Amino acid sequence: MAEGQRARKAQVERVDTGPLWIAYKEQGDRAAREKLIVHYVHLVKYVAGRLALGLPPHVDPDDLYSYGIFGLINAVERFDHNRGIKFETYAITRIRGSILDGLRAMDWVPASLRQRAKEVEEVYWRLENQLGRAATDEEVAADLGIGMEEFHRLVGDLGRSQILSLDELWPVSDGDEGEFTLKDLVGDEKAEDPFDSAAMSEMKQVLADAINRLPEKEKLVVTLYYYEGLTAKEISQVMELSVSRISQLHSKALLRLRGRLSRFRRALT
After folding, report:
1. Mind listing the pLDDT tens digit for each residue in 155-185?
2. Structural domain tally of the chain?
3. What is the pTM assigned to this prediction?
4. Would you list the DSSP string of 88-134?
């Protein structure tokens, strides 16, 4: 387990919250509710810090924190302490959703940039289909008809538009209820697979193959960020690269993955 994760886990485990949950949920103790919120507020800082990866300077970190607090409060109020589910797992999903809802409401990504992202995803998909390997920066830039300096600037701009990353919600299938995230598709191999449709199984295999085909540095960033739970700063320390370089690798990895999965997404919607 990474050092940052150990520290966060130790912070949670120092206090036995069991009596607080009983006092709030079974006795209606509002003071216990406030103590629970204060105790778990570090989860908001953690989620906001992770989602801040690549966001443009004008997105105020305090706004992310405020959106996240609403998610934490909602999680505390709705959590069923008798179900045997870890509150942290439940709360992080609610906090993340609350922050993403707030960012969507801001609608700070220009339509032209969204369209450009789709174009780059298509280029990655087409080139890598033709080449049978991960396309290099030079090959992608040449296909787009731009120089390397402009390509790197474009990747940076697109990275700041990909706030949903692998946490983006996709429909299970056309006409069906329910949603999933791409991150859900590549989880613990020992865990029971919650998806039983042919379409989901196929997409799961496609995503796994796409991640395996990523260049090594991009694959490592995806693994450390999404599956080991490290922040961009922690990843930069592990890989001995700058945070801006980690952000660039993260952006390119997402463009490749989304490009390979775009046709599946259109089929599902």
Report:
1. 887 876 655 445 554 444 444 444 445 555 4
2. 2
3. 0.60
4. HHHHHHHHHHHHHHHHHHH--S-HHHHHHHHHHHHHHHHHHHHHSSP
